[in-house]
């Protein structure tokens, strides 16, 4: 495993966050290996196997980073399995009308398995007669014990408060769940599912190979934006979820105002914020074999050029070899080509590194941000 280059601004402190960013290739490999059964029902889901064929809708309830994973999972499952998915804030799910849904499968996502509002959401779902599926990094947690079935991310304990490796492991689990449901519902053939698995399996090696370059480029982007106090992270489609997560990471560790938005919403009010004091972080990756992805990419370029024309400073994420984003952005971090639904796993890592370096050069303790705890155990 690669060792991270530690920032000198930490004055001897050991940044667990950076180490855990670098541990993501291992965490992803272990999560894949722990849940390996291409084209078959995962053994962990046998208690709800009948439900997997009959439910009419999925509701995902989660908070914080786990909810952002759920937003990405929504699109993964809808695109792969053709199922309807809604994503709820855990704290809001319990306040929904009891007549709002019929026969949903409720998926609850929590790194610790002890998040109070997510646990409450699961208990409410069970009370309403729904089957629940828990996704957690802790196999013996309360939420896993009380769920009808559970999938475990195998990211190993995460000590820093900001979620990094647990988040990418959640994305992997949700992608695998999408493949499983696609197979169960006859949406994808066994051969197609195997192709998806093989493409997923190369991601850890690609991340490991890119980490030094991402680290250096993220540090350069952080120096470029060092004195900024407001950020807009923009994404389209599945990349909106990662824009939300990138903004949250920066907000958590450096206490600046950062907001994740669908890129098309910029001109509906937030463009009033665009000036030299604003940094726009645009997720402008694309799967060139996917016409919809290419269309979203072209529209993202338009938004970045618009932001720059009004004085905004732009940091872009793009696929390697993309010269167009380089012309629209002041700094660019490149990721390897990947299928559209797997790009988020690549994209989020340099955004985590950007948050780390931005906080580090401004002298903040990334492992223990003020007011934050690893698991929110009180509502």
Strand arrangement within the widest β-sheet reads: 2-1-3-4-5
Tell me the β content: 15-25%
**Helix/strand order, N-terminal first:** HHHEHEHEHEHEHHHEHEEHEHEH
| Broad structural category | alpha/beta
Please explain how this structure is put together:
It is built from 14 helices and 10 strands. The chain is globular, with a radius of gyration of 20 Å. The chain folds into 2 domains: 35-201, Rossmann fold (3-Layer(aba) Sandwich), CATH 3.40.50.10490; 205-361, Glucose-6-phosphate isomerase like protein, domain 1 (Rossmann fold, 3-Layer(aba) Sandwich), CATH 3.40.50.10490. By secondary structure, the chain is an alpha/beta fold. Strand 6 (230-235), helix 11 (239-254) and strand 7 form a beta-alpha-beta unit. It has helices spanning 16-22, 24-34, 49-54, 64-81, 90-93, 116-127, 142-146, 165-184, 190-201, 203-224, 239-254, 291-309, 323-328, 343-361, and strands spanning 57-62, 85-89, 104-110, 131-136, 149-152, 230-235, 257-262, 278-283, 313-319, 331-335. The protein has a 5-stranded parallel sheet, sandwiched between helices. The protein has a 5-stranded parallel sheet with strand order 7-6-8-9-10.
